[in-house]
Design brief:
The complex is a heterotetramer. By secondary structure, chain A is α/β, with parallel strands linked by helices. Among the domains of chain A are: 126 residues, 3-Layer(aba) Sandwich (Rossmann fold), CATH 3.40.50; 69 residues, no CATH class; 166 residues, FAD/NAD(P)-binding domain; 71 residues, Alpha-Beta Plaits (2-Layer Sandwich). Helix content of chain A is 28%, strand content 25%. Chain A is built from 18 helices and 36 strands. In chain A, the strands form 13 sheets. Chain A has a 5-stranded parallel beta sheet with strand order 10-7-6-18-31. In chain A, strands 20-27-21-22-23 form a 5-stranded parallel beta sheet. Chain B folds into 2 domains: 184 residues, no CATH class; 132 residues, no CATH class. Chain B is globular. In chain B, a hairpin with a 2-residue loop joins strand 2 and strand 3. In chain B, 29% of the residues lie in helices and 22% in strands. The longest helix of chain B is centred in the last third of the chain and has 20 residues. In chain C, strand 4, helix 4 and strand 5 form a beta-alpha-beta unit. Chain C has 11 helices and 5 strands; from the N terminus they run αββαβαβαβααααααα. By secondary structure, chain C is an alpha/beta fold. The longest helix of chain C has 16 residues. Chain C has a 5-stranded mixed beta sheet. The N and C termini of chain C lie far apart (57 Å). Chain C folds into 2 domains: 130 residues, no CATH class; 128 residues, no CATH class. In chain D, helix 2 links the parallel strand 1 and strand 2. Chain D has one domain: Rossmann fold, CATH 3.40.50. Chain D is of the alpha/beta class. The two termini of chain D are 32 Å apart. The chains are: A alpha/beta, B alpha/beta, C alpha/beta, D alpha/beta.
Chain lengths: 681, 339, 281, 155
């Protein structure tokens, strides 16, 4: 019944034995500690012969518990537990008593060190008496990944996983994949055309056998856990049958609603109600904007089915597909279910709303534009075919003021953080501007220039030195209109003077913000987010691509502002994590997980279902379970731990007032035994 | 033997007892409560109360007591039996109902085995009771065959005969011995019939009606109705002078421990919980019934005594105003109506 | 007010809106009331309301015996009503499963209960029906609400220790404090867990200290200060001082008052990044 | 006086596995000596430390307790130390209110890199508690036996 415990005291050469009388520790332990049937000391327990000694003694002495008094468990706990497995002993009956780092190395007095070691060993032998066999938790893995978001991060991750041989489901809520990167003109620090490097990737993703793409779709719900997520995807009604449509353009050419601001062009151009967001869109098949289409407006007003409206049927009439048209006004949202083993969240960012800076004329003056709008102006495929023309009158601006840190580093506007990319893209903007308007002059107001990155500093220096942009260190206090000029009032803190610039156009380097619905989305996924609503990585240094939920990874700007190379790197990292995860049929997890008490009827569980545990769990690993009678009526609702999600922190156990949850490996009896064995009185 | 005792002599009495090696326990006021507690002088004694909060039982069956200690060595257990638990004492000024509880409980503690903790304390402690000169609505000693001046269980009975004088009657040899040892403190009674100041406790029910009804009505709906407000706290059982259930637990560190006897009570949900999870008394009506049945039926059948002395503590202390005499009145009335 | 209460109770029972009324009835003596459970409309005259209605009847929501009577309407004072807020937040009851008969109250107990001396819920903050004239709830400053603690907080360390040791020594471990507490709803109290036995069940000073400290701690951020624990303690231990101390700390540190707002996150199940850490090195 | 200098306080430290335990290891690796009065109990996270553990440590004769984990924001489990901090924010004043000197239960954030801070903290705790003297109040109630039974405790 009782355990037979073997205690192996390591000399660690002389690392331990110089200041701890290891023989005495072994002797006292053998003499006093209940359950201890064998003790020995050995020169180097971690050496091959040392491990062999352990393996042999477990067998010879029939040991059912082991304490190794040696170095920190961080060093060799794994080693000794593995050795125990080889002798048929469940590894969780092996504990390490740390008498080197926390004793022999820090207490030079031998009697003192010996006494403390004896105590530490006693505490561990007591714990071992309460150790239970634990089995590694096996989790089945569905070998398919879900990627949420079709920007550069999502595409990169999708391609990496798909190339690795696994199925990928990609969900993009817009009508086309591509994200922000597709909108950009040129990219720093090399000034290569964004579309030129982005479009091939989009095409590759679209054509990849392993990638299934759902555009114009959103995540309805995600349940399950690592290896086994159940995802519901809402395919929003596109009103166009993607299988039938050839993207011939007949429909949008005839659409009478032509005054709708193009989201892709950041409102600098118009689009139709049936439209593709941009010429290189993938899929390059249109969608009907039901908010703005007059047919749908009419149907809503009359409360009839869209197809019954006769207000305008130009697009369907123009559709050359026969006998069944590719346009279906009555199409409804469709919910599809998929099972995946891992998820990458790559939902991106949004640009700070321009109206927030009223003092800069944001949202008030047409010629005060945001960085993204400037990208469209500078883009060869943009509304001005790449010519820099100011929005109000199409005039070529001769003086352009770029204002940095608009929103970023400004707690009063709700973003205390640095958006990281603006210094670089502003430098790029000044160059693009100078390349296109040779006689123009660019002024940049900055707080600090942060260009940490390969080639970045050189790039921004080039903007200043070669392209002649005037950099002014200071903030702009106000922008107002005077005639057709914009007067920019600012400070140059280096000279200590007030600066007033008569500009033709002002470009605001607006902050990167988390998506508007980031909070709700995070809750849908049970992942954590920070104060700025960017999704939180599991560990800021060591687990930068893992989310707080096992099996859900983060890529790109949904986790925080970052530029393209960083985004691509993170996407690749996330993809490699997913690939590793999908490489086996089953995952083995360390069985240090929490467990909610279960008993025979009529008690069922001592849990009373207050769900404090659920509220404190960082991993959403606590579920509720209805314990039901035979007739189906609920007897009581209690907590249950999802082993797939639990990471073994023990927060729930310490929160539970009735101690109905315990953490395997550190259960109540084990901790109690350790404290009990302190035995000061 | 009859004597009188003047209030002014209380102090010499206590001092005298102390000199003879007695510890004195008497009613003492602490904040809102009057409790039976150790006193050093007569000044501490409080007599202007109906009933002490705690019962006399505490001095014979303490709320917690070590029954043995042990030391665990690796392959050896050494046991040490406690000593010195029976302290030579006088309980002075307890009520006759409390005193009456002792002979009733003697039966259970000397039944299949003799409980040395009880027996030795019974020997070591002398009971000097003061007859009640006042009572309240909760008192019902007269309904259970006792009286505010019962001598049952007392070694000496004091009865107030004037504002500053008590009549002293010895009931047992032990009592007589105590008085004899302190002759100077007592006076001889004045001739004539003293004016005994004894409370008049209203008789609430006929005790004879109770058991016959209980014999027949194990499944009566009144158990549930009456106990609906009960919150299962068990305070009633802890303040009761005749409730004597206890639980034994081991409290230990790694190498040594004590086996401890603690009060327990039938009103707790866990009291009858089996390891299997089954609980034969899982609801409060069953537990309330048990309390009444044990006191007025089972104990009677086994020991020929009612296990209740009518002190009323349980009803006074009940957080939900469960009133035992009210329950018994209902039973007696029902039984009356049957006839 | 009694008439209005009885009328409403009768109406609720007749319309089958509820199955039972948990209310106050006449007690053993004129100075006492007792809980009554009215299931028949014709019994509503047993309901009373007066200054002796000190009980917090919501404790019967945790008792299987009373719950078996069906959906209840509960007569609650403003203080008691706070309990229901906590019970809802802690998943013990759904709002629609209880009908709240709020009574306006100017204080109970004779002498006036301490909880009434700084009452800011004369009118319950949550109810389905309000019985009695609405009383404007006062705003009471922080210091005044916890004034009761002042004389104990300023004691020296030794005085505090001696005071509480004396109080805890009286404890007889009857657990009336937790039995009456509407928020002590665990099926198996931690003190009843014996593998391992964290809290010694014995009523000796060691067991009494760990029990009383743990009981109070388990109510941190939860206790609504109905003072029932203190009222029922047969040993007259001022238990509510401990609860109140914790309420004070919870309010001071987390700006949280239990039972006041159904939308607040439970103080002990959440955190703020800038929580106080003056004492952490 | 000689008696007093002899008193060696007994300290129990509850450490989180990821930060402070590793910090204590680092102190060892750096051979940074400190007083040997501490017995360490390792848990995955400070968030898993129930106040009952601390009470039990006192019951088993500790004169002082140290609870230490990751700095805010560094918790291996994201928020374990934040929840722990909430608990201590109420538990510590409660003990103080009951007459336990708060210096007997100390809290710290020590990262895996702060071997030096570990040494400083432990020495600090030991010195503070040494100055406070043995925890006599608790030792008295730790004695089970007739002297602690109801009869004498009433007085």
């Amino acid at each position: 019944m009782g355990k037979k415990i073997g205690v192996f005291v390591c000399h660690c050469g002389t690392n331990i034995s110089a200041t701890v009388d290891v023989e005495k520790v072994a002797e006292e332990t053998k003499k006093n500690n209940p359950g201890v049937s064998y003790t020995t000391t050995y020169k180097y327990m971690c050496s091959d012969p040392g491990q062999k000694l352990l393996r042999d003694k477990i067998k010879e002495e029939g040991l059912t518990g082991v304490v190794i008094a040696a170095c920190s468990p961080k060093m060799h706990e794994h080693t000794f537990r593995n050795a125990a497995i080889k002798s048929g002993l469940n590894p969780y009956h092996v504990e390490i008593s740390n008498i080197r780092e926390q004793c022999s190395w820090v207490h030079p007095d031998k009697p003192v060190g010996t006494e403390k070691s004896t105590d530490l060993v006693r505490m561990m032998t007591e714990k071992v008496r309460k150790d239970k066999s634990l089995k590694p938790i096996k989790v089945h893995v569905t070998k398919r990944a879900l990627i949420i978001g079709g920007g550069i991060a999502g595409i990169q991750a999708a391609l990496d996983i798909a190339d690795g041989g696994h199925e990928v489901i990609m969900v993009e809520r817009e009508a086309s994949i591509g994200g922000h990167m597709a909108q950009l003109s040129e990219t720093f620090p090399t000034l290569d055309c964004s579309q030129c490097i982005m479009t091939p990737k989009m095409v590759e993703a679209a054509q990849h056998d392993n990638i299934t793409m759902h555009t114009w779709s959103e995540i309805e719900s995600i349940t399950g856990y690592l290896g086994n997520f159940d995802v519901k995807i809402r395919k929003k009604a596109r009103s166009v049958d993607l299988d039938l449509c050839t993207g011939c353009s007949s429909c949008w050419q005839v659409c009478p609603c032509k005054k709708i601001k193009s989201e892709f062009d950041m409102g600098l151009a118009n689009r139709t109600a049936i439209y593709i967001p941009f010429p290189q869109a993938i899929p390059s098949k249109p969608v009907i904007d039901r908010e703005n289409c007059i047919l749908f407006k009419d149907a809503r007003k009359k409360n009839i089915k869209p197809n019954d409206s006769k207000v305008c049927r130009k697009c369907i009439d123009a559709c050359p597909i026969a006998p069944v048209k590719a346009i279906d006004y009555n199409q409804e949202d469709e919910i599809i279910d998929v099972k995946v083993g891992a998820i990458i969240v790559a939902t991106g960012f949004r640009e700070l709303e321009d109206g927030l800076y009223g003092e800069y004329g944001g949202g008030k003056y047409e010629d005060v534009i945001t960085g993204m709008q400037f990208e469209r102006l500078a883009s060869a495929s943009g509304p001005t075919d790449g010519k820099i023309k100011r929005p109000s009158d199409g005039k070529e601006p001769e003086i352009v003021v770029f204002i940095q840190c608009v929103g970023s580093r400004d707690p009063s506007k709700g973003c205390s953080y640095c958006s990281k990319t603006c210094c670089m893209y502003t430098a790029k903007h000044t160059m693009l501007y100078k390349h296109k308007v040779h006689h123009g002059h660019a002024f940049v107001f900055y707080i600090d220039i942060r260009c940490a990155g390969k080639g970045y500093e050189e790039f921004s220096q080039r903007a200043i030195e070669e392209e002649g942009a005037t950099y002014l260190r200071g903030r702009v206090s106000r922008v107002y209109k005077k005639g057709d000029k914009l007067i920019v009032l600012g400070a140059d803190t280096l000279t200590g003077s007030v600066v007033e610039i008569e500009a033709d156009m002002v470009v605001l380097a607006s902050a990167m913000k988390a998506q508007d619905d980031a909070e709700q989305f995070a809750q849908k996924l049970s992942i954590q987010y920070d104060k700025d609503k960017f999704f939180s990585e599991m560990h800021p240094k060591l687990k930068p691509v893992e989310s707080s939920s096992a099996g859900i990874f983060l890529a790109g700007t949904c986790q925080g502002p970052k530029d393209i190379p960083e985004t691509v790197a993170q996407a690749g990292a996330a993809a490699s994590k997913v690939l590793a995860l999908l490489s086996s049929d089953e995952l083995e997890r360390e069985p240090v997980v929490a467990r909610v008490d279960r008993q025979l009827p009529p008690v069922f569980s001592t849990c009373i279902g207050c769900f404090y545990c659920q509220k404190v769990c960082p991993y959403s690993a606590i579920e509720s379970e209805d314990i039901k009678a035979r007739d189906g009526s609920v007897i009581k609702t209690v907590a249950r731990v999802n082993e797939g999600l639990c990471q073994g922190c023990g927060l729930c156990a310490a929160t539970c007032r009735s101690k109905s949850i315990e953490l395997d490996g550190f259960n109540d009896e084990q901790i109690y035994a350790e404290i009990n064995a302190v035995e000061f009185n | 033997m009859e004597k009188t005792l003047k209030k002014e002599n209380f102090n010499s009495l206590i001092t005298g007892l102390k000199d003879q090696g007695y510890r004195t326990i008497a009613p003492k006021k602490d904040n809102n409560l009057v409790t039976l507690d150790e006193v050093q002088s007569a000044d501490e004694i409080h007599l202007d109360h109906v009933q002490t909060n705690n019962s006399i039982k505490e001095y014979f069956l303490p709320k917690t007591e070590k029954i043995l200690s042990y030391t665990l060595e690796k392959n050896k257990v050494s046991i040490e039996e406690p000593e010195g638990f029976a302290v030579k004492s006088v309980v002075f000024g307890s009520r006759p109902c409390d005193a009456a509880s002792l002979p009733i409980m003697d039966k259970v503690f000397n039944w299949d085995c003799s409980d040395k903790f009880w027996v030795e304390r019974r020997e070591a402690i002398t009971i000097v009771t003061i007859a009640c000169d006042k009572c309240d609505n909760y008192c019902f000693c007269t309904s259970v065959g006792l009286a505010p001046d019962s001598k049952e269980g007392s070694d000496v009975l004091l009865t107030k005969i004037s504002d500053d004088e008590y009549l002293v009657e010895t009931v047992t040899e032990k009592g007589e011995g105590l008085i004899k040892g302190l002759e100077t403190v007592f006076s001889d009674p004045v001739a004539g019939t003293p004016d005994r100041q004894v409370a008049s406790v209203e008789k609430k029910f006929e005790i004879d009606k109770i058991k016959p009804w209980l014999d027949e009505n194990f499944a009566h709906k009144i158990w549930a109705e009456f106990s609906m407000k009960c919150i299962s706290c068990g305070a009633c059982t802890f303040v009761c002078p005749t409730c004597h259930c206890f639980d034994i637990v081991d409290e230990c560190t790694m190498s040594k421990g004590d086996r401890v006897k603690n009060w327990d009570g039938c009103q707790f949900k866990m009291f009858t919980l089996h390891t299997s999870g089954h609980n034969p008394r899982s609801t409060q009506d069953q537990r309330w019934r048990q309390r009444i049945m044990h006191k007025f039926k089972y104990y009677v059948e086994k020991f020929d005594n009612i296990l209740c002395v009518g002190c009323g503590r349980c009803s006074r202390v009940c957080p939900a105003d469960m009133n035992i005499s009210e329950m018994l009145e209902i039973i007696a009335t029902e039984e009356n109506q049957k006839e | 007010m009694i008439e209005a209460l009885r009328k409403k109770a009768e109406e609720l029972l007749r319309s089958n809106t509820v199955d039972v009324i948990y209310g106050y009835g006449e007690g053993s003596t004129p100075e006492r009331t007792r809980p009554v459970f009215i299931t028949k409309p014709e019994d509503v005259n047993k309901l009373i309301w007066n200054k002796y209605c000190v009980y917090n009847l919501t404790t019967y929501l945790k008792r299987q015996e009373s719950r078996k009577l069906g959906k209840p309407a509960i007569v609650v004072k403003g203080c008691d009503a706070k309990t229901i807020v906590v019970l809802i937040k802690e998943s013990q009851i759904k709002r629609e499963d209880v009908y709240i008969l709020g009574v306006t109250c100017n204080g109970v107990g004779e002498p006036l209960a301490t909880k009434c001396k700084a009452c800011d819920v004369n009118t319950p903050r949550i109810y389905d029906d309000l019985i009695g004239e609405k009383i404007e709830n006062k705003e009471i400053p922080f210091d005044e609400r916890y004034a009761e603690l002042d004389e104990y907080e300023k004691l020296s360390e030794k005085e505090k220790w001696d005071f509480w040791q004396k109080q805890f020594a009286k404890c007889i471990k009857c657990y009336a404090c937790s039995s009456i507490c509407p928020l002590c709803f665990c099926d198996r109290c931690i003190v009843d867990k014996n593998q391992p036995q964290w809290i010694d069940p014995s009523a000796h000073p060691r067991g009494n200290l760990s029990w009383n400290v743990t009981r109070a701690y388990h109510l941190a951020g939860r206790c609504i200060n109905c003072e029932e624990c203190q009222r029922v303690c047969p040993a007259d231990i001022p238990l509510n001082l401990l609860n109140k101390k914790l309420a004070k700390e919870t309010e001071k540190n987390f700006n949280y008052r239990s039972g006041y707002n159904i939308d607040d996150e439970l103080a002990m199940a959440t955190y703020k990044e800038d929580d106080n850490q003056d004492f952490i090195k | 006086m000689a008696e007093e200098t002899k008193f060696e306080p007994k300290i129990v430290a509850f450490l989180c596995n990821w930060c402070t335990y590793a910090g204590a290891d680092l102190a060892g690796t750096g051979r940074n000596q400190y007083q040997a009065n501490v017995r360490v109990i390792k848990l995955p996270c400070t968030g898993g430390i129930d106040p009952l553990f601390l009470i039990k440590a006192f019951e088993r004769g500790a004169d002082g307790i140290l609870v230490s984990g990751c700095h805010p924001g560094d918790c291996h489990y994201n928020s374990g130390n934040y929840h722990a901090r909430r608990r201590w924010n109420v538990f510590r004043p409660l003990l103080e209110f009951c007459g336990i000197n708060p210096e007997r239960i100390q809290f710290s954030w020590i990262s895996a890199a702060e071997g030096g801070k570990w040494v400083e903290t432990i020495n600090g705790v030991v010195d503070t508690v040494r100055a406070l003297g043995p925890f006599e109040g608790y030792q008295k109630i730790n004695t089970i036996g007739p002297d602690a039974s109801s009869e004498s405790s009433q007085t």
